[in-house]
Every structure is written in structure tokens, then in C-alpha cells.
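Appendix C: a fully annotated inverse folding record. The material below is reproduced so that readers can follow the format used throughout the book. The structure is listed first as C-alpha cells, followed by the designed sequence.
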């Protein structure tokens, strides 16, 4: 008979309430992402001590401080590198990486590409507001051509990164886009991203209400169209996903663009980790082996 100690505790939303309340501006899209992450974890019944949330630098990168999970607020653009290490050390954990478009596609662009091709099993949520918010409104890698910002007052001269096309080309095995104004849909995408066994990329339109007056909730609402509403669309079709990723303007697709499940994640492909998470393994090097290494160098 199960004792009270053995009975799994029901995971509730209150379990994830951080000690600090978010200091984001009222109306910031990041509130919607935080709420959707908490809801997804509750619906999947994942206890907070089995989750690690890792971020870089930026408004959205303050995320680990606002949710009660294990967490690390790391260096600018380096969250994915740290998260890959965490996952390899203990692949039993649910690893979430949160950050913004500047942190992820600018400073961290190199890690973005390599974590995808390695198929590290984690969910990377980018709160994409097309601007640098924390530093008060400079052009970011996803700011549109011609957008006037503090750093480019006469208009952005650089074409924006297309995160969805980039993720598809780099080999991400789960690629999706959400909108913080579509909570139920966003929660569903987060759940799917967590359950996917491999690298899951979720770009979320998360409006910066203070510094981006172009890409507002009002601007996105009539444009976003759910891929799931098109019965002919198949997320298994990479070419179709690439075609959809290029749409921008009057119609901007959100939803699951692409998923493949036939590739092992990095930890599943690593024979050393087949016996279980590294964190539980005896990794002491026998004395005679150490001695022979030293002797070889003498
Ligand atoms: Fe959100 Fe923008 Fe305020 Fe940062 S500056 S908290 S991104 S609204």
C-alpha cells in the first residue's frame, strides 16, 4: 500500500510562484509567456524540482527569477551553452531556456546554431519583441528594415533575421511560433516542445509595449494565422515549413511549423549516458589510470 510519502503530489500553479514578482512593464508580452509556461508544467504535472530554467541577459532573461524552479541567470548569449551542459549532466531534468531576440539571435547566434544541430533535448523559448528592451530601445536582430529606434533614428539599414527559417536550416527537430496574446495556443506549443525528445525551438511574439510601437498586440492580432487551422498543412513536411516560414506581412503563421522524431537527441546518442544520468554515475578515475596518465607526461 502506498504511504503518504510515496503518493505523488499534485502539481499546482502555486508551486511555480517565484519569490520575486516580475518587474516587467505593465502589459509586457513576457507576462503571457510566464503564465503559459506555468500552465504547461501544471498540465504536464512536472514538479518544480525536476525543472531547470536558464537564461542569458535581457528583460525576458530575468525569467528564472520569477518562477520557482532550479535556475541560472547566465551570461549574455550563453544560456544555450550552459543549458546543454546541464542536460548532459542530468538528462532526467526538464530544461527550459528563456531569453530575447537580441540575446538569442545576436550575441548568442553561434550557440543557437550549434545547439540545434546537436539536437540537445531542451525547449528554447525566445520572447521575440523585435527590439532591445532592457537597454531602452535599440535595433535588434529581428527589427524590421526601416524601423526607427534609438540606435537607428533614421531607420534600420539591416534586414532582419528570420528565426524560423534559420532554425529549420540548422536542423532543429521541433520548430514553432507562438504569440503571447494567444495563451491557450501558446500553452499547447510549450507542452509539445517540452514533450519533444530533441531540440525544440519556440519563437514567441512578445510585444515590448514601452519601446516597440510598431509590433504591438494590435498589429499582430489581425495578422497571426494558426497553422493548425489549415487541415492540409503537415508539420512533417520540411519544405512546406520552409515555405510558411517566409510569410510575413498581412499573414504571419503561428503554430507548429515542423517536427521530426526519427533523430536521437544528443544524450540518447551518447553511449556513456545509456546507463543513466551522469550526475548519478561514479566518475572517479582509478588511481592506477591517473598514475599512468602522469607517467606518460613525465
Ligand atoms: Fe517588456 Fe519592453 Fe518593458 Fe522590457 S522594456 S519589460 S521588454 S515592455
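Designed amino acids, in order:
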Amino acid at each position: 500500500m502506498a504511504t503518504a510519502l510515496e503518493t505523488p503530489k499534485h502539481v499546482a500553479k502555486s508551486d511555480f510562484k517565484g519569490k520575486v514578482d516580475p518587474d516587467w512593464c505593465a502589459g509586457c508580452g513576457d507576462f503571457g509567456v510566464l503564465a503559459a509556461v506555468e500552465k504547461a508544467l501544471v498540465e504536464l504535472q512536472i514538479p518544480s524540482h525536476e525543472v531547470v530554467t536558464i537564461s542569458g541577459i535581457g528583460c525576458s532573461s530575468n525569467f528564472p527569477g520569477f518562477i520557482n524552479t532550479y535556475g541560472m541567470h547566465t551570461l549574455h548569449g550563453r544560456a544555450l551553452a550552459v543549458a546543454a551542459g546541464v542536460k548532459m549532466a542530468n538528462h532526467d531534468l526538464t530544461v527550459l531556456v528563456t531569453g530575447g531576440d537580441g540575446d538569442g539571435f545576436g550575441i548568442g547566434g553561434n550557440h543557437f546554431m550549434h545547439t540545434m544541430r546537436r539536437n540537445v533535448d531542451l525547449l528554447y523559448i525566445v520572447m521575440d519583441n523585435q527590439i532591445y528592451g532592457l537597454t531602452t530601445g535599440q535595433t535588434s536582430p529581428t527589427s524590421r528594415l526601416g524601423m526607427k529606434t534609438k540606435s537607428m533614428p533614421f531607420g534600420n539599414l539591416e534586414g532582419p533575421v528570420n528565426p524560423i527559417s534559420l532554425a529549420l536550416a540548422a536542423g532543429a527537430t521541433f520548430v514553432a511560433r507562438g504569440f503571447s496574446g494567444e495563451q491557450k495556443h501558446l500553452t499547447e506549443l510549450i507542452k509539445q516542445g517540452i514533450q519533444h525528445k530533441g531540440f525544440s525551438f519556440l519563437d514567441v511574439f512578445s510585444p515590448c509595449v514601452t519601446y516597440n510601437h510598431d509590433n504591438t498586440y494590435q498589429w499582430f492580432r489581425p495578422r497571426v494565422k494558426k497553422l493548425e487551422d489549415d487541415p492540409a498543412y503537415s508539420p512533417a513536411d520540411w519544405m512546406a515549413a520552409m515555405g510558411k516560414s517566409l510569410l510575413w506581412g498581412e499573414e504571419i503563421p503561428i503554430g507548429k511549423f515542423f517536427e521530426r522524431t526519427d533523430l536521437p537527441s544528443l544524450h540518447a546518442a551518447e553511449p556513456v549516458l545509456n546507463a543513466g544520468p551522469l550526475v548519478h554515475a561514479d566518475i572517479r578515475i582509478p588511481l592506477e589510470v591517473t598514475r599512468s596518465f602522469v607517467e606518460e607526461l613525465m
